[in-house]
Specification:
Helix content: 40-55%
Distance between the termini: 32 Å
Strand content: 5-15%
Number of helices: 15
Strand order of the largest sheet: 5-4-3-1-2-6
Order of helices and strands: HHEHHEHHEHHHHHEHEHHHE
Shape: globular
Length: 396
């Protein structure tokens, strides 16, 4: 197998079709609802049309939640609100349908795929389809040594590429991307600090589980020590993931790059996916055009990474649960933007005197409100539906 160079992705990734985006913007100008009245939904509809290469935009009908799972050795230092080596418990909660992302996915009718890239647990604790891609058992302590070997980092990136190809080939039209990790925000913050040239204290947050001040200081020290190891390899993104990343982070980076190659839009969740996106941007500068930032996670490293990529989060509700929860909450906004862009009527011509697309009374208010308000975007949700959270490789 030939050696992997992440910079090669730059030649494979094209931007979404700018001509189609202009056509979508021109169509928006002709709609009965005044320009600007829908706020950012207009921008989302135009972005999605460009990604799809279609005007009017098509509905998002086959979204998928993809979660890369892994444990991180740095958690042994007490930098996380969870015990080291317990990420498999997060995976089990998703598979059992009792985690926040599983509940939301069930309600929205969105299937969930969990991929074990580097969990530190006995494989027999989880379904075979979850653990079959595991690169290694847990990632190394990045403050004192490499997270991965070079070969493991390459294997993890190729894993992410393969998962992206599988999703694109299966017809997935949008991915909600998240992580299931313990200690993962520490390497994520280290990657962001290294790539943005900032100090450890600027990017150190309190993680999804929350930590006290003493744990925060330990985490800041771990990121500081990890940065000393990261800075000498900044010119090589694969070497950076080897030194201070992890199997799940490397797999997420590969997934993001290949999703852009395959023209498959992605909604990013929290600091881990944002950090991986920043690494991917360094390899392929056009890749961020295929991504949306789902929500503000409260992690300073996420804010730093998104600012560097010029990605503005769709939501800011103080959700810190992680696991793709915030990104999944943003999905209905994207679906609503697609529905409005495709289904709202165009303004009537002078001869039509305002009745085109109307609802019977011919008034402008009735036209806009009646058409937009009756559209269902959530799809086949139902509290009694079968749990769609499933292992890697589940069927649709």
């Amino acid at each position: 197998m030939s050696s992997l160079n992440l910079d090669d992705f730059s030649d494979l990734i094209e931007r979404p079709d700018s001509g189609v985006r202009r056509d979508a913007a021109e169509r928006r100008e002709r709609l009965a609802v005044p320009p600007g009245a829908l706020g950012r939904l207009d921008e989302l509809g135009e972005w999605l049309a460009a990604a799809q290469g279609a005007v009017p935009v098509r509905a998002v009908e086959r979204p998928r939640v993809v979660l890369f799972a892994g444990d991180h050795g740095v958690a042994e230092l007490g930098v996380s609100g969870r015990a080291a080596g317990t990420a498999h418990e997060l995976v089990r909660s998703v598979l059992d349908g009792v985690s926040p992302v599983a509940v939301l996915a069930r309600r929205a009718g969105v299937p969930v795929r969990v991929v074990d890239a580097g969990l530190d647990c006995d494989p027999d604790l989880l379904p075979k389809d979850v653990v079959r891609h595991r690169v290694r058992r847990g990632s190394g302590r990045i403050d004192a040594g490499d997270a991965l070997t070079r070969e493991e980092a390459e294997q993890a990136v190729r894993l992410g590429v393969a998962i992206a190809d599988e999703e694109a080939d299966a017809g997935t039209d949008l991915v909600v991307l998240g992580d299931l990790s313990v200690g993962g925000t520490t390497p994520a913050a280290t990657l962001v600090a290294a790539l943005c040239g900032t100090d450890a204290s600027v990017v150190t947050g309190r993680g999804g589980a929350g930590i006290d001040d003493l744990a925060w200081m330990r985490k800041c020290a771990a990121i500081r020590d990890s940065l000393r190891r990261a800075r000498p390899v900044l010119g090589d993104q694969l070497a950076l993931l080897t030194a201070v990343g992890g199997a799940d982070l490397a797999a997420t980076t590969g997934f993001l790059l290949q999703a852009a190659v395959r023209r498959m839009p992605v909604i990013l969740d929290g600091v881990v996916s944002a950090a991986c996106a920043l690494v991917a941007q360094r390899a392929a500068f056009r890749a961020p055009d295929w991504w949306l930032a789902g929500q503000v996670s409260g992690e300073p490293a996420q804010a730093k990474a998104l600012d560097r990529m010029a990605l503005e989060p769709l939501l800011d509700h103080g959700v810190t649960a992680g696991e793709g929860t915030g990104a999944l909450l943003a999905l209905p906004l994207v679906q609503a933007a697609a529905a409005l862009a495709a289904e709202l009527p165009e303004r009537a011509t002078a001869a039509g005197s305002g009745t085109a697309g109307g609802t019977g009374d011919g008034t402008g208010d009735g036209t806009g409100g009646g058409t937009g308000g009756g559209t269902e975007v959530s799809g086949p949700a139902g509290s009694g539906s079968e749990n769609p959270a499933a292992a890697d490789g589940d069927s649709r």
